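User: Ubiquitin carboxyl-terminal hydrolase 7, Hyalella azteca:
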Amino acid sequence: MNHLNQTGPPTPDKQLEMMDTQEDTGGDDDGGGLDGDGVRRRVSGRRDDVINGRTEGSVDNQAALPPASNPALQQQPPANIVPAAASSTNHVDQEMEDDDARSEATFKFSVPQFSKLKETVLSPPCYVRNLPWKIMVMQRMQQQQIQGQNSTERQCNRSLGFFLQCNGESESASWSCNAIAELRLLSVKEGVENFSRKIHHLFYSKENDWGFSHFMAWNEVLDPERGYIKDDTITLEVCVSADAPHGVSWDSKKHTGYVGLKNQGATCYMNSLLQVLYFTNQLRMAVYKMPTESDDSTKSVALALQRVFHELQTSDKPVGTKKLTKSFGWETLDSFMQHDAQEFLRVLLDKLETKMKGTCVEGVIPRLFEGKTLSYFKCKHVDYTSSRTETFYDIQLNIKGKKNIYESLRDYISVETLEGDNKYDAGEHGLQEAEKGVIFQSFPPVLHLHLMRFQYDPLTDSNVKINDRYEFPERLNLDSYVGKREEGMGGTYVLHAVLVHSGDNHGGHYVVFINPKGDGRWCKFDDDVVSRCSKQEAIDHNFGGHEDDISLTVKHCTNAYMLVYIRESGGAPEDSMVNIKSVLHEVTEKDIPLDLIDRLGEEKRIEMIRRKERNEAHLFMTVQVVLEDAFCGHQGYDLYDQDKAQYRLFKVKKSSTLKEFLELLADTLKYPIEQIRPWPLSLRTNQTNRTTHLDVEAGLHKELGQISDNVNPWIVFVETVSPESGLRSLPNFDKESDVLLFFKYYDPRHKKLHYSGHHYMHISHCLVDIVPMLNERAGLPPNTELALFEEIKPNLVDRLPDLNRPIEKVLEELMDGDIIVYQRLDLLTDATLELPSAKDYLKDIFYRVEVTFCDKQVPSDPGFVMELSQRMNYDQVARAVALRLDTDPYLLQFFKAQSHRDAPGNAVRCTYEGTLKDMLTCVKPRQPKRIYYQQLSIRINELENKRQMKCVYINERSKEEQELVLYPNKNGTVADLLAEARKQIPALVAGAEAGANMNNPATPPLPTSAKLRLVEISSCKITQVPPENMSLEALTSAGTRTYRVEEVPPGELPLAEDELQIPVAHFSKEPYSTFGSPFLIKVKQGETVPSVMERIQKKLEVPDKEFEKYRLAIVIMGRHSFLSEGDHLNLVDFRVLSNQAQLPSKPWLGLEHVNKAPKRSRYNYLEKAIKIYN
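Assistant: Predicted structure for Ubiquitin carboxyl-terminal hydrolase 7:
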């Protein structure tokens, strides 16, 4: 339950304050210093010390004069700033009173010559939370209409405007500070009380002042009899209490000695609990000592917690928790989901306890947090007692209707009497009246108390938050709550932390108040902001209560949710050494293992390097170098597959020159610089990836960023001298007359391409001149005739007809990087070859695609990959997959993949006329292309004429439910469905009993004469028994409706005229709370209730003792009436008349008893359970 992201500051509680406007509203002043409607007013933020007041209608437009020009204001003394007065309540520590970072202060401002006040004046600043706070006082005008006998007159009333301004001179728009204040007009007359008003406001740049436009009528202030003015001077006083501000440079470490935790979005609950665990110093010490040397730094929860604790102890800035949540196995979404603080604490402590087993810190968590209770049942009338000792790590206290912790603890150990229908089953003594209770045997040194603020409301079927006032003491004595009522056995506890929730069950925000050293010096931890606070803020202000129960200082939805107490003295003798001194013993740097410090230090060093790299990333570029060996073996268009290529990566500065890059290449590749030449690879307009010429000499001193046109990454083919050539340098290349060509040799017998190198060729030369070279590279005789093809673009390959013409006239748009594919000419006409030409082969390659086939019946099946042609039809695909699965193609059914998620979609009919390409239309680009399949027990062409129906089969002898998948004809009837079921039931029963104990006799097979029936079930109630002649089209499986096939018990059919089959359903307390498996029972007209109950008990095989608690009721239209033993059943009540045929619920018999099945959680079903996966 966490705070939500907001674009602006939240609106303050409307019960405590109302937003002001720039205009005043009309109406008589009620004498209380407010408008007629009691609205508190604000003045828009001002930057000058003297500003205009505003009124409605005729605004006082006198020019604002400098303070020195007004004689009345010229003699004003500075504001009298005084510390907050001491009172019976607890306030901030004495040393905080003179600190600008203090949480509260009281200051005064005297206004001489008040009657002459015309302009707005501001007091000198008083610093609270490092922000300047000023009193703003002004004369306000209010227009009022007075109805006369003949006309309406307008009268202008004057009032005292009194505001509190915060950070008024700041130009920043990101700051905010939540504060409460009391604005007072001090009395100067004995016996007259100060006049005061309270405000509660979130101050920020657009609303940096808040107060009252009409604090008191002007004439009342000037009236000496009222007692607020003397010698034409009034004194105003403000007592302000503020939270630590957000959006300003608040140094938590400087002001408190501690740092906060960053909020990831909705992790305030986690941050609060982590601070609580961190300040449980003995636990922190144990966390440091957990062995994590061999742990994976990304998956180890223990190491991540060590990291967080170490940074909280050593850092000067707020600490991040992303690595911790990542170690939990959480995704980003988990950090934005609301979770319960108590549940998170239990899961985390359980993980830590498991990690500590077998180490030097094993048992630390139980020693700190584990207490013991004794649960017992004691019979009143027989000598029988049952008890069990249980351990606990926290105590959940019921707060509803309770005033404080002591009342809740008394309620926790109160004795409950089990009597009447709720008697205790005492075994051989039967059902007995008994007392049920819990006794605390011991309390742990660190006591976690969870206040049950959130409880289930049956009226709304949801959780509601209880905001009632609930008090808890600073010191807690538990002597009277342990089983042994000896003095000191319970112990005295000191309050260490108060976890506070603001909001309701739908969301809110967590903060925690912690007394770190147990000395009464409290701090407030609000995510990344930590501030000192008073004891009153930490304890009294978090009791809760509604608006009329609490002061203005607290909102009614803000209250304590969890309390942490640490034992000060007492307790069991074996625990006497574990007390507040040992639990809060200071943890220093020397207490942290050196190997852990070294590992975390090395992590930080690496992080700093990576952070520096990220910050300087814009200065660098990545050059991906590909060498000629990457072209070998490539089967397809272009020179290589960009997705599978093994690049050599170079990270270089964009400002480095081409010469510097070539020197780096030469040094890395171990070639002299004259033996390498770079050829940038770029994407042409025809979607081919080819080399382009780079003028090395002209660009030798140019920057790489300029040469690459700031392309990042920049892909470069680096040409090198072949070691077999014997050359000392690469041949010269004339960009005006030479062209770089690449060659591939196609072998049609093996349907394979072979890379044949590259060549510089003069544009005036003919292709026939290079035929001998090509034959040599392909291992062919020199005089072999060749057919040459130009690879223009994907699915476009043209044969070069005339090899005796100059290349510039043969190749279309001759460019560097063009690719020529060649093959033996005589094989072009070989009819025995499947793909005789390079053009045929490349076209086939163009249509080839890798398809992943996943089994529809296996969740998250990775499947298998096959390379198929997109031009294949349904039969060809089915045969290929069937060959892989070793099955019949007609025993396979295919399903298209859904476009929005990885799941099967619509089935593909076996008569599908499209191609594999059409079957893959829903697949996203660059995503694995999937098709789902399932293996069938009947041929696909037969299946498509049938309807699949999933039913439940109940074996009348074993009482077990099993799923039954049936395939009746689409136009069939219920009788056809039952006939299909009769065929499958023997195999179904045999399979279920295959693993049965050999000593037990097998369940007899289904008798051939046994009659089957179909039953329709919805919400655990039988809604109808479809007749055998009903069409299957009339049966729907929508919503919660299911169908059950069952044997008709012997003797139930046929029915006599005075007999009827009546549906029976189980329910608990209310008829809508149905559960279990419903059934049919034959009832005679006038049959007694005991007779029916006897047969029901026999059918359900329920023991007598348990069946005594069952009650029979007749349920009509959702209302139930219990039947007594003397009642007789009237079948008329169950017969559906013609005018009742459309009733939503037909009459049925209800069997009321306790549902012993696991109950569904009453927590928010949309709330995801907390899991720590690693």
